[in-house]
Give the backbone structure.
Amino acid sequence: MFTKSSTRTITIGVAAAAGLLLVAPAAHAETEVPEPSSFTSAFTVMATPDQVINNDGVATPGQAGAAGTFTFRINSTLEIICYDIELTGVSGDYQSPAKTATHIHQAAVGQAGPPRIAFPNPAPVGDGPRTSSGCLQGPFTTGVLANGVDTGEGFTLSQIEANAAGFTADSHTVASPAGVVRGQLTQVPVGGVATGAGGTAGPDTAVVTAAAVGVAGLLAGAGFIAYRRRTAATR
């Protein structure tokens, strides 16, 4: 279950997760775990207000001046996703029908889609930057029901590796329930080879090490959160 101090109680409000009107009982199947020694893929997101859409797929810009950077590192063999999230220029508290208000949704550009993973909300709530970091191991739940089933049920991280462009990351607030910022996942190339599904590599590059992902993230462009190594002793 979520144990990080950054996790906040979410006010249940307008259904901001696309097409999802039923709220599931609180469920916390995923577990916070130490960071693994290697990853099978890595992804980044540059989230902005202009990419936000509502449940009907209509452009619904989030908070002006807000921005978000998301870095995800995946070990799909162990079903572990590590995350570094930073929100800037965001005001007000969080709001979502899910168990947290910060998600990966299965949704292509300009489309609505269900949340598949719910992350601890970046903290602290205030005028400064909000951050959240850690690692979660599936199976995943979101606390939102679609046709009586939690939208995280049956989801696997290999689905992201197979089609990163089909997933988006966002966060929701009281003032911007459709999303304060949103952005599509972009795969981080390591050693000249796109990691995850579709990439080809020799024995030395088939699995991405934590250090390699950190370097690739820094080279990918400004705004990425620097790699921070975590161990069980620091949790």
